[in-house]
Amino acid sequence: MAIRLGQNRYGKSRVRLLRATRHDGWNEIKELTLAISFEGDFETVHTKGDNSKVLPTDTIKNTVYALARKHPMKSAEDFAMNLIGHFFSKNEYVSRVRVDAVEDLWTRILVDGKPHPSAFVRAGEEKRTALLDGTRDGVAIRAGIMNLIAMKTADSAFEGFMRDAYTTLKEDRDRIMATSIRARWLYDGMAIAFDSTWEGVKSALLEAFAGHKSESLQHTLYAMGEAVLAKFGQIREIHLSLPNKHYNLLNLSPFGMENPAEVFLPTDEPHGLIEGTVQRD
Amino acid sequence: MAIRLGQNRYGKSRVRLLRATRHDGWNEIKELTLAISFEGDFETVHTKGDNSKVLPTDTIKNTVYALARKHPMKSAEDFAMNLIGHFFSKNEYVSRVRVDAVEDLWTRILVDGKPHPSAFVRAGEEKRTALLDGTRDGVAIRAGIMNLIAMKTADSAFEGFMRDAYTTLKEDRDRIMATSIRARWLYDGMAIAFDSTWEGVKSALLEAFAGHKSESLQHTLYAMGEAVLAKFGQIREIHLSLPNKHYNLLNLSPFGMENPAEVFLPTDEPHGLIEGTVQRD
Amino acid sequence: MAIRLGQNRYGKSRVRLLRATRHDGWNEIKELTLAISFEGDFETVHTKGDNSKVLPTDTIKNTVYALARKHPMKSAEDFAMNLIGHFFSKNEYVSRVRVDAVEDLWTRILVDGKPHPSAFVRAGEEKRTALLDGTRDGVAIRAGIMNLIAMKTADSAFEGFMRDAYTTLKEDRDRIMATSIRARWLYDGMAIAFDSTWEGVKSALLEAFAGHKSESLQHTLYAMGEAVLAKFGQIREIHLSLPNKHYNLLNLSPFGMENPAEVFLPTDEPHGLIEGTVQRD
Amino acid sequence: MAIRLGQNRYGKSRVRLLRATRHDGWNEIKELTLAISFEGDFETVHTKGDNSKVLPTDTIKNTVYALARKHPMKSAEDFAMNLIGHFFSKNEYVSRVRVDAVEDLWTRILVDGKPHPSAFVRAGEEKRTALLDGTRDGVAIRAGIMNLIAMKTADSAFEGFMRDAYTTLKEDRDRIMATSIRARWLYDGMAIAFDSTWEGVKSALLEAFAGHKSESLQHTLYAMGEAVLAKFGQIREIHLSLPNKHYNLLNLSPFGMENPAEVFLPTDEPHGLIEGTVQRD
User: Fold this and answer.
1) What pTM was estimated for this model as a whole?
2) Whose CA, among B258, C192, D35, D208, lies 20 to 30 Å from C35?
3) What are the structural domains, with CATH classification, of chain C?
4) Distance between alpha carbon A2 and the CA centroid of its chain, in Å?
């Protein structure tokens, strides 16, 4: 039985970049970390050590910097489109180019209540993401958010679940629900207002999380996905990955105390993990 | 030459806690992670295995939860004061109690532009800290902030420095300056408005960072410390630890391009580290 | 256009476990961290908030502990098989159960050169992994290793690659090659000597890495995969993910020094990433 | 009340370095990450923006690479001594130079049971450390180890401790004890066989941990420190920092099962933390 190469890819990860734009003292910045990978006809690279079809990953990195200089950087999505176009035009052996971008978010420092023209502070713990998957036939664009940490102290229940011999969990009409939202959504086409849509989806996710009468984290996941699809017609589907970051009510009865939903133990180990896609039919 | 026990301490770290307060549907939350340590007369614990003077670290943890239930939690500083008072009153062998608190910051989710009564989102990547160092003679209270990430794209120079045989750095009148601010300040006494002062110091640090005509990160460190001491009479001294998170201008000349302060390489390895205390005479 | 639930799963992650086995003073330990997920008929959980088909993730966790007590724990693979069998027998709505195990490795402390019967030290930075993917039709068993960090200072070249306008990399017949090996391999069937095979694969990977005359990391990836398949007939395919952890030769000419492959700058940002599957035809 | 600069220092952190040494096909490697800091007469740097006394941190980094080329690298301690000597000879304003080194440990890959001449694998999760604190009067040399993870499943008790209203911990004659050893020891003078002493201290720490009849982690800390001082006359004192990484016996009685010290829950949050110095009188 012969041995052969199966699916494979190569590229450069953790390519970091800050792009500053300067207009008469009013500066703008965008900070990205990119992972770029190629698939294609690379069999003999592996089997024969023939590098003639391999663009070095060092060149992939250099291309990021050269193209960042050539083009204004409106959004990670736009920039990734430029990269994919460039790589396909120059590398006939490449059949798929993926660009995975993570953006560190900055906001202006307020001085006397006014946004400073050239000083910035990290906007939040969450990151904006973009994942573009390009073939010779087209590019699928997925935007996303990760590490958006949210909690609600009301309107969250978990009751009526299955029980077996190992079930000790109590029914709860009023628990804390907390998660770190990770979402990725697929756009229909490319003519998207990437920045305003991203802001809109972020708000829709948080508003749905806040307002939902939750029977489970699954139930809330669906409500969040539905809210996004209902509001943004150009989104085809959204995938949500929601860890259930447990805040367990502490039992203070050994100290002769009641605990009327006041003192909780936050814990990350173990955690539930709920994942699902909400999509148009 | 005999062998003996020198300085020693013990305690519990990573004690996590969420305190919720509920007023007719309007909820408040505070999330802390505590490290508590005791010093005292513990020599025979080490040398003889005699545990009769050792309050278990498990009890230290339980005490956190019991006292969180007993007292409203106005601030980490107030809560730590309660803990220290409790431990000294019950443990005659203890001569020093330290409480080191790190607070995860939450803000309300906005729904239709209005703060939600019971749903929250992480406020930022920065953490609020409090370090209380108590002896039988009194308690020193230090508040702080960490992981407050800031950048400026103008008004930062580094020139006129010493040069030796290994110096290759170029003088720069217009570089990017970025750091992750870690500050701790010592209060004069205990009658402090902890929350509003913390907010004020955070703003003062960011405003000084933004507005300073910087000749070096050391120069800006001093300006930041001075701004805080000038504004807050109840602060005796402030210690700042500022990594110089380099954003290096990329050399694009191999690609036939100029780079007029537009495309930068962010890097954390290596980084400068500038640390200093600014204090009243 | 209607909105509906797509692919989804739920479960418990970061379930940690130490299983000790005691034989007349000779103790054995196994430490695992598990992630378990279910797929199945869970649509109304999401869309209606109907929990009647949901086994709580808390119960999934409890089941791990109960079954760890019931069965001797020979290997992560055996234990995961027991878990999958249990969950399918009790939960008719579940169509797929995945168990992802990461094992922290321990070895005995040597005292006077002899293995201690009940004291252990962490064996290495690498982790042993097992991923079992069970449906009603059968279970696919993948074993693996991650974080196995290796370096070679000879027999590594990278030459003859493609060049374009952004290529500045020099050809190199004698570079350092370093990586953090992440491998997963698929077994043919279930009658496998899991422990000895894992040890054998680990050795085969390292020996192939060490002995290969490398023309690229892709070339070495293939040689490593081929070595494993050649030696272990019960392995159908192996997937390797190899970051190229660059050790860049430092240019010391500004200080009037040559650098004959002696002083290198290790860096993780950016890094190449080479991934591929080697399989039987 | 005037404002002034208090204690301050500056330097470069995360300076990474691999030094390879080649002897006719037999290669040796040493990988270090350094943090170097200067104290001295730097007041006007802060208060006036006068950089004339500041050697750039970029030059500090370059110096590491130049000196790594100039000198054979026998140990981190020797290399740090060279750095300190160099910096004092060239920088009259510097009164203190600290070098903090962390070494990633490598061992040779075995091929057919024999150590390979030029291929290496990470030796363990632990790191070797060296901290040299130099003034114009001399250098204090501290060696150390961190992240050395150890566990014992016998000979560990915790009984007879203090109890108060919040104590719920049960006495235990037979618990699991686990920790991540962090140790730093101070040498008497500089004429030390750094490599063999480090190996000896590591063994002595592990052997003492393994063999001790422990009444508490404090008790074992002292035994470990005493064992090192008894064996190595050139060590003046040793500081140990030992987190108590709890492995809690799981209560399986809700499932109708006993748990005779077989199934444990490992947890890092919260953890005890025991710290102490053992020294010669």
Assistant:
1) 0.97
2) C192
3) 10-136 (3.10.270.10), 146-279 (3.10.270.10)
4) 40
